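A quick word before the example. In earlier lectures we treated sequence and structure as two separate objects. From today on, think of them as two lines of the same record. Here is Laminin written that way.
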Amino acid sequence: ILELLDLHNRTENIKNLAGDLKRNATQLQEANVDGALNLTREAYQRVRRLEEKELETQELIENAARQCKRTEILVNRTADEVHRLSSSNADALAEYEGVLQDLNERLPELNELMCGSRGSPCDDLCGGAGCGFCGGLSCEKGALTKAEKALNYAKDTEKTLREKDEQAEELIRSLSQAKTNASEAWRRANRVFNESELYYNETDDYINVARSYITNLTDVINSNTALPSEIETIADEVNETLRVIDEAKNIKTVGATGAYTKEFDAMGKKLEKIRQLLDNTTISGQDIENLESEVLNLRKSLNSALENIKRTENYLEDLDSNINLANVDLTLQR
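And the structure line, produced from the sequence above:
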């Protein structure tokens, strides 16, 4: 419509300008025929151009009128739909306003549950919806603060569990090493025990043989005489005992080569003395009693050593059992 009014105004201006030119041409013709003729020709050319412009403008006006008519028809045709959509939009807007009002009414409660305070719309300390932050150190009732604390507790717990797991692994390695060392010590002690037990049995045999010597020698002393065959028999038994002692001294064990070497030497010396006495055939009862006392002392020392070895074996068995129980406990805890 504005364009039509503008075209109409321009047309009226062109008509007024043509009238002015016509009057000017008449006045000029009266004053100066030649100059007026040139001016009239120029004016005529301008008028012709203006008339062409007017025709174009008129065509535009007619096209615009037709477009306006079509627009009016389209508006009339879609007016009902426009009114319906407008009414629907109004209803939807009212519904959304009701939902928004309901949310605004629930917002303080939501802020209290999530952030820890009933801010409307938000609290200065605990924040809330639309505040840019939620929860804080003094907002312990809020779900967000509780969740953050729970997360920090979980992280601390995870760190503690990692440290405990590392300590448990180190303890397991230490116990495994201790078990290995204890097992090796038990094997060595068991070997020493077995060898010592063998030595004990052999020594017991020596004692029995020595007692037999003592009995035979006592009989000889009591009778004051001894047959050559009896002395030879006792001498053979002494030689045999010395041979067994020499073999025992050659056993490469902790017991035989360490603590009991002196006892073996002492026993050997006593048996050598017995053999010398037998060679002298004047052996006395006092010498035999001394030999028996030495042999008995040796047997007591050996018994004490065997008891110590047995206690060591029992201690190592208990240690191995404790290590196994510790490994089981650590496995269950993990």
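Notice the following. The helical segments are 2-31, 33-114, 143-223, 228-249, 254-259, 261-280, 285-333. We will return to this example when we discuss secondary structure assignment.
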